[in-house]
C-alpha cells in the first residue's frame, strides 16, 4: 500500500513538472543575450562601446510595450525605455554607446562600459518595478552569455 501511494505521489509530482502546451507556446519577454566583452582592446571608442550590448526577445505572439521598463547591471547602471514597443517574435539590442534608436537597436548613450568582463548580472524590470528576468555570468573564457 505504501509503495502504491509513493508511485501515485511520484506520478502526480512528475505531472506537475511537465509544461502544458498552452504555457509552452505562450512565450515571454526576456533577456536573450549579453555580449559583455567587446572585441579588441577596451579603448572606450563608440564602436567598442556599441559592441557591448544586451538583447531582449519577445517570443509572444503580441507586441509588448516596454515604456518605462528598465535594464540594470549589478552596479545599478540603469537604462530606461522611453516610448517603445517590441514587436511579436522580435529582438531588440541595447548598445552601451551612442547611436540613433531604431526598432531593432537602442542606445544608452554612455561613454564608459557597463558590463564587467568577468561577472555581472542583468535585470529586466517592468515599468511597475516587477522583476521580469535576470541573467548572470561569471567567466572570462567567453565574451557573451546566452540567457
Task: State the main characteristics.
five-stranded mixed sheet; disordered N terminus; 3 helices; 11 strands; alpha+beta; four-stranded antiparallel sheet; Immunoglobulin-like; 147 residues
Task: Give a structural overview.
- By secondary structure, the chain is α+β, with helices and mostly antiparallel strands.
- The chain has a single domain (29-146), classed as Lamin Tail domain (Immunoglobulin-like, Sandwich).
- 18% of the residues lie in helices and 34% in strands.
- It has three helices and eleven strands; from the N terminus they run H-H-E-H-E-E-E-E-E-E-E-E-E-E.
- The strands form three sheets. The chain has a five-stranded mixed β-sheet, with no helix packed on it. A four-stranded antiparallel β-sheet has the order 5-4-9-10, with no helix packed on it. It has a two-stranded antiparallel sheet with strand order 3-6.
- A hairpin with a 5-residue loop joins strand 9 (119-125) and strand 10.
- It is globular.
- 20% of the residues are buried.
Can you tell me the CATH topology?
A: Immunoglobulin-like
The major pleated sheet works out as: 5 strands, mixed
Helicity, as a percent range:
10-25%
- Which overall shape is indicated by the principal axes computed on the Cα atoms? globular
| Strand arrangement across the biggest beta sheet | 8-7-2-1-11
CATH superfamily descriptor:
Lamin Tail domain
Radius of gyration: 19 Å
Top-tier CATH class: Mainly Beta
Proportion of residues in β-strands: 25-35%
Number of helices: 3
What is the β-strand count? 11
